[in-house]
Amino acid sequence: MRAWLRAGMVLAGLLVLSVLAGGLYVRSELRASLPQVDGTRQLPGLTAPVTVTRDALGVPTITGGSRVDVARALGFVHAQDRFFQMDLQRRQPAGELSALVGAAAVDVDAAMRVHRFRQVARAAYARTSPDWKAIVDAYAEGVNTGISALGAPPFEYLVLRATPEPWRPEDTILTVLAMFDSLQGRQAAFERTNQQLRDALPEPLFRFLTAVGSEWEAPAAGEAVTRPPVPGPEVADLRARGPHPAEPSRVAARTACASWPLRLVPAACQSSDEAAVIGSNNWAVDAAHADGGALLANDMHLGISVPNIWYRASMVFPDPADALGTQRITGITLPGIPTLVVGSTGYVAWGFTNTGGDWSDLIRVDADPHDPGAYLTPDGPEPFEVATESIAVKGADPRPLTVRSTRWGPIVWTDVDGHAYAQHWVAHDPDVLASDLSQVERTRSVDELLVVSAGLGIPNQNLTMADRTGRVAWTIGGRIPKRYGLDGFTSESWADGTRGWDGYVAAVDYPRIVDPPGGRIWTANAAVVGGADLALIGDGGLSDGIRARIIRDRLLALPHARAPDMLAIQLDNQSLFLDRWRTLALDTVARAAASAPADRQASRAGFARLIETTWDGHASPPSAAYRLVRTFRAAVVRRTMAFLTAPALARDPSFDYTRSPRAEGPVWQLVTARPPHLLDPAFTSWDDLRIASVDAATAELAVDGGSLADRTWGEVNRARITHPLSGAVPFLSRWLDMPADPLPGDVFTPRAHSPRTGPSERMVVSPGREESGILHMPVGQSAHPLSPHYADMHRAWVLGESVPFLPGPAAFTLTLTP
User: Fold this and answer.
1) What is the pTM of this model?
2) Helix ranges restricted to H, 413-504
């Protein structure tokens, strides 16, 4: 017995020692993977020393003797702080995530591999200009030096038991393609949804349900779109229709997406609310309407995770326009790309919002009736290009994938009738992607930036700008397709040559707003212009104009805008959008029949009392009234749209009306006009549908017998800002994830928030007066949990506090030498 006891004690001691040794090893590896921020480090390839100073928030100022040297140093810094993020961003569009994380990502990889973006990126890199290639090459070499200079790989590779792979120059273009997917990846699904509706509904009803715009539209120039009238009973009398089918497809899709463990949520997995937030606000005020000089404000709404997508930086190098001077460019960078994304050069400041324009077309491919391996083109039958892609899977055999492509693009969908559809997308064009992104930082005025931006190889953006002379302007950044024979809203055959793209629109023909009479420009993912300009941009999922309307009204109320005023608009959570729904809900309860059971009458009365007495007019976390009204609206929309679009679901079980952002315009017309011929026969009247929606909202929120007053907006709109690995390794979440803060704002307010998406940065700057600007973002500069800069920016972002646009005094200095 004593021998057994001694053996047990020895084993226990060895176990304790092994745990301690393992803990010490992990801790030593973690510390070894921290970036170097002080001292001296050799960086091969430099032509002269480069200094990297970091302020108290870890924001670097990189000062070098040439733009290429600064790009090399930026690559070094990005890699040391954010390499795992960069790795995911290049793998996601290339369809190479499974090689790093295993079988959980195979389906996502397969969906992306269809586009063969790795080959597109290689082709684009081969076509880059010598000057841009020198910057991209230097950046890639700096990245690889930065990651190899760490004492240990970033901790994510320790968890995944993987080794970082070298960064290739083409990976910079893949990083751009990751943004194409994030910002335009839903366009094929949007057009597919339109096509499914058009195939199932009378044309006037299809146009009514899918027409852009509502009463909220507030374009910065031109006339707002007028909504079509409610179709009459001669078009569609739906009262005789039987029950509409169940909707299983969305449940299955959401279940599959719920297991997605990584940072980059694929476009197909974004909820409708999250897709609505992935957009942004920006605006500009000219010098005549601002104190001291023109102001540019931008808050880009994207998925937010740990680390944040953006990385703040300031770069100083010789001014190409002044042999004796230097230029300083400051703003937001995207790790993986060696230039600013948005910011200021001292001459020009610019910001982006997603356009919602149409940059992709689904083409119905007509099969050759004599050869199943061919399809029809204007030049006669042509064989499909067939390629076999091999998806590497960590811990498993590679998965083969057969990809069929046409001259217009890859086959991405086959409908219920067996028709194949190819996608023709700006993102597939290597010539577009080869453009020099550093051109923007060399511009000196809005006039120069208007010309340069027309050729940029970026996801098409509303580009709003201001310059140091006090002028403001807007245009589309990126290439605009030049269509003929079609508008791109639904799918068409291009086989007979009467429809297609004839290259891209010339720069001189781009839509523009320059020096507007009112001195103000605003964009928020809705239509910015009207008429022919809007037709040229197209409709690839334009948002409702509510945010644009609020921003416009706030700007017009400011005779002389200042930077704090701009931040206040970015933080505006006024719930103007739901005011009329609150009135409708109160009217609904007041009109409800008194014959309802007593318990139902009591719940309705409680609902009405809360939204009547506690409504504060804002999407604020303590507000139960806001959440009640919002839930009521969602119930009305669901009942109305599910019935009207039921023929599309009956025809094709994959149909999902939530893929279209069009609801507010048609639904509001219907619930106010009350056409009986478009009412679901499950209800006796539109009042009946509305009171059923009140009952559904109260039932949904009064769970477990809880009080409606406790169901606040902050309870559901709570931050879920997580690290890529915390979903797959839950015990890590307490160390890696951000706090679950209740967040003010909503997709319908300028302060647009959902739990996983929202303002990825807030910037206000006047070019030439950067010292008075504001720039903050969630989380922090570093992706390393032991770094003091892992989350030190986060509270200011949550609270909406000002943080200076320019980096502060140097707290650390690293000298990089040749």
Assistant:
1) 0.93
2) 430-433, 446-453
